[in-house]
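Running co-folding for pyridoxal-5'-phosphate.
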Amino acid sequence: MSNSKTIPNTNFPIEKIREDFPILSRKVNGKALIYFDSASTAHKPQVVIDAIDAFYKYQNSNIHRGVHTLSQQITIEYEKARSIVQEHLNAKHAREIIFTKGTTDSINLVASSFGRKFIFEGDEIIISCMEHHSNILPWQQLCKERGAVLKVIPISDEGELVMDEYKKLLSDKTRIVAVTHISNVLGTINPVKEIIDLAHEKNIPVLIDGAQSVPHSSVDVQELDCDFYCFSAHKIYGPTGVGVLYGKESLLKIMPPYQTGGGTIETVTFEKTVFADLPLKFEAGTPHISGGLGLGAALNYLNEIGLKEISLYEDELLKYATEALNKVQGVKIIGTALHKVAVISFVIERLHPFDIGTILDQLGIAVRTGHHCTQPLMQRFGVAGMVRVSFSFYNTKDEINIFIKGLEKTISMLK
Ligand code: PLP
């Protein structure tokens, strides 16, 4: 994942991989689609589509509820998907894996449940300047409700966390630290192990927003020793509307339920409810069953290719695109951290990101434009928006060449 020493990876089976993604063969505006927006959502390989399709065709039933064969079988399959996630993150127990709607939902779960139990007036919560709104708003709202204070780790001009400032922010009042593993705008890989170790010296739990890291790297929650880790299936080639909260059992056990209702209980009377054990305590209502199965299929697919190979290949694309973009007159890349993933954001003086994105779209090239759900980060760099290209292992250097030509054409049209 780190790009400091990129090794050429000529054996990567790119042609075979591209065939796995049906959408990559479609045209947009009469041109072959070039999709550079995988940080927003990644495309789905056929195996994931097949897993979802098979559920509705042959397996449809509710989980954890029936004695009949369909229900029993799908419960086993759904719990298998949970075990796939557990193994992927190297969590100690499957019960530490909570299925949610996605990263946003996972963070809201922790802010709401942990917050209700442990955050009080005058307490402090630390986040960073490069957080996605999904890792700002739940904490900001919690602070407002509980009279707590939000503290923000600043970043350097290169887009790296200022660790000395982080150390100063940690105090006896800090109740939780919540930071992103990888920035969705800058591509910066944050030193999360160090962040966690420093917080733990003061017994402060740490939540890591892994929305942008799980697609690019292997994550070991036991090695990191993080208290919570969140990600979304749709960014790792799985379906939308499903994601994961990993939490240490010791914490999840003492946290109150986030939402309540069917599926979360052991017994109910009108006087009293006894909640179920983990993970069901946090999984109210009928879940996104096909989503869980699709997530399992996506992780199996990634592991078959190998995250190491994926990250080497993506690093090559990052290096190639960075060099090419730096040669385009007027382009200023924002986010030049030493350690980053294949996400590049840039601005071009006097040109509006939306105009750039609109013209590129006419050429069949999908890039992301705007504030990328990180308005405070835009404020930090003094811009209203940026253009972002984010690469996946299904992208190629040829596509980057076409994009660079398209960008040069766009600039000449707009200037
Ligand atoms: N955190 C980061 C770093 C992200 O990039 C995103 C999505 O772009 C999110 C959180 C929110 O993810 P979701 O919309 O899947 O809940």
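Result summary
The pocket of pyridoxal-5'-phosphate is lined by residues 40, 102-104, 132, 134-135, 180, 184, 209, 211-212, 232 (CB under 6 Å).
DSSP finds 14 helices and 17 strands in the chain.
Job closed.
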